[in-house]
C-alpha cells in the first residue's frame, strides 16, 4: 500500500478529507470500487490501528480491517453524511471488533501475542517502528492505546476522542498525557 | 524528544504496519450488489415504520423548549459570567442590566486584586475599571507579562460577542491610558460540562481552560495539564508563535517576550556555535516552542549544503540539542529554481528573521540574496496553482501594517474619527486609503502599509463632523466594531479590509468587508452601543484572501 496515500489522514487536511470521504461513500453506494480503493487508502491505518488497539491480535485486526470495508461497501447507501465519515467507519470497525472479542471468548482464551516477533515479520516495519509499536501494545493500557491511536493516526481531536470512546474529556486528556509520558520514557531508554 | 515527535513516530509505525489487503476486499465485494439492494429496501421500509417518531419528537421538542424557556426565565439572575486571567484569575457575574451580582477570586493573586473592594450592584464597566486599575497597581501587568484574557459566557451568542468586543476595547483603552503596551485576548464561551470539569480539575477559569484546550487541539504534542500551568502571556506567545486561530476570539496587541532571550539572541547563539557569519546562513526558520516544561527556540537553517537544527533554552540561552545533516538535494534544487529576491512563504508557520540582531522584518530581505525556497527531498510536489500564487505574492515576512495599526496611525496623527479606511492590494505599493474627520476638517489620506509612511495627507474644511458629534458618546468606536467582526468571524487573524462609518441619525452603521482564508465577511454593525450587528453575510468560497490578503492582518 502506498504510504503517501495514508498520510492524507492528518489534522491539517481533516475538513477536506471529510468531504472527500463523503464523496467516496456516495460513489461506493453506486458500487464504485475505485471509490472503495480511495476510501481504503485514506482510512485503513485508522481502522487497522483502532481494531488492533481493541483486539490486541494482528490476525484478528486484519480480519476486522477486511470486514469493515466489506460492510462499508454493503451499507454505503444507508450512510447519512453528518460530516463525520471516519466516525461512521470506525464505528463499524468497533462493532466488528467487539463481536470478534465475544466470539473469541466463546472459543478459547487466546494467548497474548509476541509483539516483537509479530512486527518483525512485517517487512515494511523498521526497527524503530517495531520499538514504538511494541511499546504501544505492551506498555499502554487498552484505553490509553485507543486514545493514542485515535489522536495520532486518525487525527481525532481530544474532544472527538472523548466523544467516540464515551469518556469525559478530562479523562481523555489525562490518559493521553500519561500515555505520551510512558512512550517518551520507553523510547528514550531504548535510544 | 518532543511530544509531537512521539506522535509522529506512532503514526509512521502504524502506517508501516498496515497490511495491504485491498485486492482481497475488492474481490470479495464482487456479487454483493444484490445484497446491498435488499438491505436498502429493508432500510427504507424500516424508516417508513418509524415515521410516527418525527411528529412525536417535534411535540416533545416543543415541550422541552417551553420548559427550558420557563426555567431560563426563572433563573436569569446571572446573565453573563466574565472572567479575567493574567495570573490573577477573577470571575464576575452580572445580571441582564450588567450590574455585578458577585465577584469571585479564583486564586490567591485574584484575592489580592479584589482586596476590600465591594462590587455588588456596581455597573460592569466601573467594576472592570477598578479591577484593571488594581491589577496595574499590584504589578500583575507589566512589560514582561502584558497579556490579559477576557472570557465572556452568555447563552446569547450575539450578546456575548458584543460584550466581548466592548470589554476588549475598554481594557485596551485602560491599558493605553496607563502607558502599558498590553495584549488583550478576548473570547466568547458557552456553557460546557467538559470545560467546567477541566477548569475545576486544573483549578483555572473556564475561559483559560477553553483557551488551553484550543491550543492543545490545534497543535500536535501539546499537553493540557502542562499548558494549564502557564501564564496567559505565555499562552498568548504560543498562539502568536504558532499563528494559531483561536475560535470565537479576537486579539489586540502583542504578547511580551521580554522574559525570554528573544529570537535574535537565539540566532546569534546558534550561528556562533557553528562558527559562521549571520549572513552566510540560508532558509532560517525559528519559532518559540513549549515542550517538556520549558520554553525553547526551535531553529533550523542551512549552511554550505548542511542542515542545522537547534533547540535553545529560551531563558538561559543554553543549547539543549544540536543536529546537523548533509542535504545533497539542497544545491541541486536551488540551482534549478529562478532566483527570487526574498523568501517565499512556506507551509510551516514560522518567522524568518535575519541572522543579525537587526529588526526581523528588514533583515529578512537583506539576508536572502539567494533563492530560499526549495522542497525538501522527502516532500511531495506542491500544488502548481498554489505555487503560482506563492511565487507572485509578497513574502509573509513583509511585516505589512495591520488594519488596526493603520487606523491607529491615522488617529495618532489627526485625532477625531476615521470615517473610512480601505486596504488596496498592490504587491509593490500596498496602501491604506481613506478619510478621517475632526472638528470641521476632513483629511484624505494614503498610508503605505509596508513603509508605514503617509503618501497623501490632504486636509480640507468639512462640516460633516458637526452632524454626529453629539452622538459620539452613545456610539461604539471603529476599533470596537472591527473587534466585533473579528470575534464573530471566529478567527483571530481575520483581516478587516474595508470599514466605513455611515452616519444616520436613526441608524448609524459601520459597514465593510473582512477576509480570512476562503471566507469573505460582509458586515453592517449598528454604531449605537449595544445594538449589535445589522447585517452579516459570509461567502465561504472566496479566494481574495489567498490572492491578496494572506500576509496581512
Mean pLDDT of chain A: 86
Strand content of chain A: under 5%
Question: What is the percent of helical residues of chain B?
Answer: 25-40%
Q: What is the overall silhouette of chain B?
A: globular
Provide the CATH superfamily of the largest domain in chain A. Answer: RNA polymerase sigma factor, region 2, helix turn helix motif
Instruction: State the end-to-end distance of chain B.
Output: 34 Å
Indicate the multimeric state. heterodimer
How would you characterize this protein structure?
The complex is a heterodimer of chains A (191) and B (553). Chain A has 191 residues and is mostly helical. Chain A contains ten helices and no strands. In chain A, α8 (142-153) packs across α10 (169-190). The longest helix of chain A is centred in the N-terminal third of the chain and has 23 residues, at 33-55. The radius of gyration of chain A is 17 Å and the shape is globular. Chain B folds into three domains: 80-252, no CATH class; 263-396, Roll (Nuclear Transport Factor 2, Chain: A); 403-549, Roll (Nuclear Transport Factor 2, Chain: A). Chain B is built from 19 helices and 18 strands. Chain B has helices spanning 3-17, 22-29, 33-49, 53-74, 108-114, 124-137, 157-177, 193-202, 206-218, 224-228, 232-241, 263-273, 329-336, 360-366, 384-392, 403-414, 464-468, 478-489, 544-549, and strands at 80-85, 89-94, 100-105, 147-153, 183-189, 249-252, 282-291, 294-303, 306-313, 319-326, 417-424, 431-438, 441-448, 454-461, 495-502, 509-516, 519-526, 533-539. In chain B, β4 (147-153), α7 and β5 (183-189) form a beta-alpha-beta unit. Classes of the chains: A mainly alpha (191), B alpha+beta (553). Chains A and B meet through α1, α3, α4, α7 and α8 of A and α1, α2, α3, α8 and α9 of B.
